[in-house]
Amino acid sequence: MSDGEPGRLIVISGPSGAGKSTIVRRLLRECPLPLTLSISATTRAPRPGELDGRDYYFLSDSEFAEMRQRGEFLECKEVFGRGHWYGTLYDQVATGLREGRWVILEIDVEGAAAVIERDLHPITIFLHPGGMSELETRLRKRGTESEAAIERRLEVAAREMRALPRYDHEVINRNIGPTVAEVCEILQRYKEPSSCSKN
Ligand code: 5GP
Q1: Residue 33 Cα, ligand 1 centroid: separation in angstroms?
Q2: What pLDDT sits at residue 81?
Q3: Rounded to the nearest whole angstrom, what is the distance from the C-alpha of residue 193 to the centroid of ligand 1?
Q4: Exposed, middle or buried: residue 21 (CB in 10 Å: 0-12, 13-18, 19+)?
Q5: Which of 72, 79, 142, 144 maximizes ligand 1 atoms within 8 Å of its Cβ, making it the mutation to test the pocket?
Q6: What is the number of domains present in the chain?
Q7: Is residue 30 situated within a structural domain?
Q8: Of all protein residues, whose CA lies closest to atom 1 belonging to ligand 1?
Q9: 82 lies in a domain?
Q10: Domain encompassing residue 109
């Protein structure tokens, strides 16, 4: 479904609890660009309501390791240091870009750093809720994780916040609607002006 325009790579990172998934889902529905989400692979268990092939490809440790060995990931890493792997599948990105789509990677800051190094010229956006206490409130409200897991995420979040200067754009997610509009507007600035000729 390409009209000849090249695809673009978009990296969206930010501490977990910043509302990235919600923003991305709404962008896909509301932003008038040919956006598509790259579905990552992970070895973590699905949360209630998550679906294989929609939210992630949920893999066993050995399946993930085999794919890693075959070089099927654009980047992959063990997030949170507890044995859960996450990875961006080459195939998801390559297919989207080939079709002229704007492929969104919703990945952590280290994955983003690896993608930035690869010369793929991504548009990078760092999304956060405005501060650590706001983040803690959101993580607790979500109620899907144990106290220990929340503490770990907060530690990681404090570290991730330090990656902010490496991103092209900072967006503070205070209210979902305006945040979706802001991210969409940022992305639209990267649209090539339509070419016109004079006879
Ligand atoms: P969650 O377990 O809450 O879905 O995601 C945990 C973290 O992993 C989030 O910060 C998310 O952005 C990141 N993540 C998801 N997919 C990938 C991926 O393919 N690569 C990397 N590096 N991080 C990912």
Answers
A1: 23
A2: 63
A3: 33
A4: middle
A5: 79
A6: 1
A7: yes
A8: 16
A9: yes
A10: 8-190
pLDDT number for residue 198: 59
Domain membership of residue 71 (yes or no) is: yes
| Ligand 1 nearest atom to the CA of residue 87, by list position | 19
> Looking at the domain assignment, is residue 195 inside a domain?
no
H-assigned helices in the chain: 20-30, 61-69, 90-98, 109-117, 132-142, 147-161, 176-188
Residue nearest to atom 11 of ligand 1 (CA): 107
Tokens of 132: 């650590």
Q: The domain spanning residue 97 has which CATH number? A: 3.40.50.300
Mean pLDDT by 10 residues, the chain (199 residues): 78 88 96 98 95 96 98 90 88 96 96 92 95 84 84 88 95 95 97 68
Is residue 157 within 8 Å of residue 17, measured between CB atoms?
yes
Q: What is the pTM of this model?
A: 0.90
